[in-house]
């Protein structure tokens, strides 16, 4: 085998220089081509930017040119709000008149003499039974609800400070008197306990159920130390009492009020009073100035016409001229009335606008609490009413004597049994006063999305707190809650106010002219609300994707009454001014839908409104990044309404313009109350 070696031909210096020269020329040529291309692209980019800038300036100029016209049209459309407020005011006046002409004997709670007379007369009735008090409580609760709605529905600019104090004072008096009446009637029942004793146990048991109140009374007549478990027949209500109570002459009362009269009334917002007062004062000044000018013009016109009438008195056309003067004076008066009405509408419009802004106003500071276990009522809500748990000393029993019933009536009235006593030194064992185990039934029409917390009322501090309660067990299927209580008093169940916030999604869908369906979807529930004219109705509720029946379904109510009713059942989707302290708000522009979430109509139109300008966006629902770029062949507008006019059908715009002012006001109020844009 032979190997041949081949030498690589050696490149000369001249050839290497030639190659380098060629490479340099090629590099320079490429750089020149790249530079020319870059310059061309840059020129094209700058030209596009110039064209876009010119187009942008043209659109801005066009927008500014028609801004006043569009805003004037918007102001005309916004006249529906003061018109709706006028109708509300007329409705309130009509309600007062209807109550007056009914003559049914019930007082008008807004009239101080009437409600004071009612309270005084009821105080004088001292021999009522529990059944009679419960029957009367329906009227009392109705009066309290009317006053409550008057405070909420009447705008602050229509309520004087003394009127607010009067209404709140009447509410507190009625609440206190109602509870006092229950205590007096309970004492009367307990004086007859021995005549109502059960034949088997020897103790007395009484249960009275009503739509607003459920009352359970048990009297320990036998004092049997082995009778330690108190359970009311045909119910799940149960008490496990210690030996010291089983051997004492005591009575246990559970008064379950389906309403909450323990929690103090919320004070009127200082910002609400101050802001509205400022606006009202400002516009009232304008009204007074306008009236003064009108009055001055009338006087001058009258003097001028008077002089003219004197000068023509000697002429033959005196009668005709006098007729012309009267016509002119009538015209001036009509014109002044129209001007005055216009100024009053301005006052109303400014006040309504201020009230709408306050619905979405956020508090600057988070509320602070002095007690460690105090319930923050900005974060939690009481639900299902209040359970008034009391232990009373058994009053002297009535005794038959020669056909008469003799009974000793204590001057001090019904006395509470203090458990545990203030001093326990006289008792041998340390555990003589253990916590009392209580089992309560949860109100059926209240929804708890999580296990409720139990809170007790602190009478001294006037607030709810969570200490002194242990071993809480909630049975959701049986709707029972069991816990141990160190001392008796009012207790309630509480739930996180913001448990349904932030919202997962929402939709406002038109059903017909002056009728829409608002759907709000949260982690736990889907709520559908129908709105028509000045009324709202709960259309359906789903809990964990299952249909849930509610007593509110099918009942049309005014927006404020409807919101209160939803809150009382646990369906709270209404943020407050403090909610931003407790809810993590999702600031993302949008969330992409997954394949498992099909959309019936994927062609969404994305609109943006900055407060000064409305525009259609070039991006769509599937765009990866946000851009304020304007959609091709579209323009700027001053309002969303005028932007929608560019692509909406004539039929759609006609339906918008033909919508009633009360309907627009109700939809606006619900959107402001739910604050869907902020809490979704």
UniProtKB/TrEMBL annotation:
<feature type="domain" description="IC97/Casc1 N-terminal">
    <location>
        <begin position="26"/>
        <end position="226"/>
    </location>
</feature>
<feature type="compositionally biased region" description="Basic residues">
    <location>
        <begin position="1"/>
        <end position="11"/>
    </location>
</feature>
<dbReference type="GO" id="GO:0005930">
    <property type="term" value="C:axoneme"/>
</dbReference>
<dbReference type="Pfam" id="PF15927">
    <property type="entry name" value="Casc1_N"/>
</dbReference>
<dbReference type="InterPro" id="IPR023247">
    <property type="entry name" value="IC97/Dnai7-like"/>
</dbReference>
<feature type="region of interest" description="Disordered">
    <location>
        <begin position="1"/>
        <end position="45"/>
    </location>
</feature>
<dbReference type="InterPro" id="IPR031826">
    <property type="entry name" value="IC97/Casc1_N"/>
</dbReference>
<dbReference type="GO" id="GO:0008017">
    <property type="term" value="F:microtubule binding"/>
</dbReference>
<dbReference type="GO" id="GO:0048487">
    <property type="term" value="F:beta-tubulin binding"/>
</dbReference>
<comment type="similarity">
    <text>Belongs to the DNAI7 family.</text>
</comment>
<protein>
    <recommendedName>
        <fullName>Dynein axonemal intermediate chain 7</fullName>
    </recommendedName>
</protein>
<feature type="compositionally biased region" description="Basic and acidic residues">
    <location>
        <begin position="12"/>
        <end position="45"/>
    </location>
</feature>
């Amino acid at each position: 085998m032979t190997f041949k070696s081949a030498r690589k031909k050696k490149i000369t210096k001249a050839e290497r220089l030639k190659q380098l020269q060629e490479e340099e020329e090629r590099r320079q040529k490429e750089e020149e081509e790249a530079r020319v291309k870059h310059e061309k692209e840059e020129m094209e980019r700058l030209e596009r930017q110039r064209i876009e800038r010119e187009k942008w300036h043209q659109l801005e100029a066009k927008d500014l040119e028609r801004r006043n016209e569009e805003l004037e049209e918007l102001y005309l459309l916004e006249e529906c709000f003061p018109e709706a407020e006028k109708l509300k005011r007329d409705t309130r006046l009509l309600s007062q008149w209807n109550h007056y002409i009914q003559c049914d004997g019930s007082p008008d709670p807004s009239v101080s003499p009437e409600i004071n007379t009612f309270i005084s007369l009821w105080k004088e009735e001292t021999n009522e039974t529990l059944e009679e008090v419960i029957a009367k409580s329906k009227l009392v609760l109705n009066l309290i609800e009317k006053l409550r709605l008057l405070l909420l529905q009447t705008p602050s600019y229509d309520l004087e400070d003394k009127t607010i104090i009067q209404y709140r004072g009447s509410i507190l008096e009625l609440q206190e008197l109602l509870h006092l009446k229950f205590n007096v009637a309970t004492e009367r029942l307990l004086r007859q306990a021995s005549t109502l004793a059960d034949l088997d146990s020897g103790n007395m048991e009484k249960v009275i159920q009503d739509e607003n109140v459920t009352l359970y009374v048990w009297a320990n007549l036998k004092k049997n130390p082995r009778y330690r478990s108190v359970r009311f027949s045909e119910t799940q209500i149960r008490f496990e009492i210690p030996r010291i109570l089983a051997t004492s002459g005591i009575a246990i009362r559970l008064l379950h009020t389906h309403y909450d009269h323990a929690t103090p009334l919320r004070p009127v917002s200082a910002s609400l009073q101050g802001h509205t007062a400022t606006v009202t004062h400002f516009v009232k000044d304008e009204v007074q100035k306008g009236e003064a000018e009108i009055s001055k013009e009338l006087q001058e016109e009258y003097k001028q016409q008077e002089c003219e009438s004197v000068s023509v008195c000697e002429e033959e056309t005196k009668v005709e001229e006098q007729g012309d003067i009267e016509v002119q004076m009538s015209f001036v008066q009509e014109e002044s009335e129209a001007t005055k009405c216009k100024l009053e509408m301005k006052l109303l419009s400014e006040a309504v606008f201020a009230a709408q802004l306050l619905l979405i106003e956020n508090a600057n500071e988070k509320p602070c609490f002095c007690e460690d276990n105090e319930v923050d009522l900005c974060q939690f809500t009481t639900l299902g009413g209040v359970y008034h748990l009391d232990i009373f000393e058994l009053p002297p029993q009535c005794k038959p004597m020669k056909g008469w019933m003799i009974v000793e009536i204590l001057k001090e009235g019904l006395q509470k049994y203090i458990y545990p006593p203030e001093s326990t030194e006289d008792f041998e064992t340390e555990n003589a006063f253990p916590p009392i185990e209580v089992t309560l039934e949860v109100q059926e029409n209240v929804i708890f999305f999580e296990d409720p917390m139990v809170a007790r009322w602190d009478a001294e501090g006037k607030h709810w707190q969570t200490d002194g309660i242990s071993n809480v067990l909630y049975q959701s299927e049986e709707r029972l809650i069991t816990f141990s209580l160190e001392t008796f008093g009012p207790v309630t169940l509480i739930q996180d106010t913001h448990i349904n916030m932030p919202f997962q999604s929402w939709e406002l869908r038109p059903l017909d002219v002056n009728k829409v369906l608002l759907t709000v979807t949260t982690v736990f529930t889907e709520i559908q609300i129908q709105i028509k004219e000045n009324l709202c109705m709960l259309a359906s509720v789903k809990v964990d994707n299952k249909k849930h029946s509610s007593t509110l379904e099918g009942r049309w109510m005014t927006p404020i009454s409807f919101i209160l009713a939803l809150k009382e059942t646990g369906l709270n989707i209404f943020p407050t001014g403090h909610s931003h302290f407790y809810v993590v708000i999702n600031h993302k522009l949008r969330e992409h839908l997954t394949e498992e979430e099909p959309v019936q109509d994927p062609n969404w139109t994305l609109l943006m409104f900055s407060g000064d300008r409305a525009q259609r966006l070039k991006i769509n629902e599937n765009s990866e990044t946000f851009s304020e770029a304007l959609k091709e062949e579209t323009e700027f507008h001053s309002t969303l309404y005028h932007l929608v006019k560019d692509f909406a059908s004539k039929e759609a715009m006609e339906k918008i313009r033909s919508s009633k002012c009360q309907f627009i006001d109700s939809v606006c109020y619900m959107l402001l109350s739910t604050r869907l844009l902020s809490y979704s």
